[in-house]
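One example given next:
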Amino acid sequence: INDGEGHPSSSHQTLKGTSKWATSLENLLEDPEGVKRFREFLKKEFSEENVLFWLACEEFKKTQGKKQMQEKAKEIYMTFLSSKASSQVNVEGQSRLSETILETPHPLMFQKLQDQIFNLMKYDSYSRFLKSDIFLNHQKSEEQEENSPEAQTAAKRASRIYNT
């Protein structure tokens, strides 16, 4: 069975928005709207740098070419890891990181640090996010949209088509 776009349909794909975000941090981070709301929440908690670092590392892994990798690695280092970083993240082993690693970059060079930040978000801020006004209000507005007369009419039409 395929969905309308030719992708195999599964229960995961039928979940949308906040329902999908609530199943895992991974699902939240795959959704641009989810990332936006999570950043909004983390900003209020003064820990937005965690998700920004995680996103920068994801982008870094896709970087092609040694020169571009060096530039992006240096940018990540200076923004998040250096002792003078403007948005410093708190990770173990940070003090052992030096700028010399930036000379020979590789796609997974920040992986351990990224995993630490992911786990910090997963076991700390993510659970608070799911209880936050930002999440709950977004969830409420989604439910109101689903229960709007237009949505119900479309659903009734679809059920009539398929149940005849």
Summary: The first helix runs from residue 11 to 14. The chain has a mean pLDDT of 84.
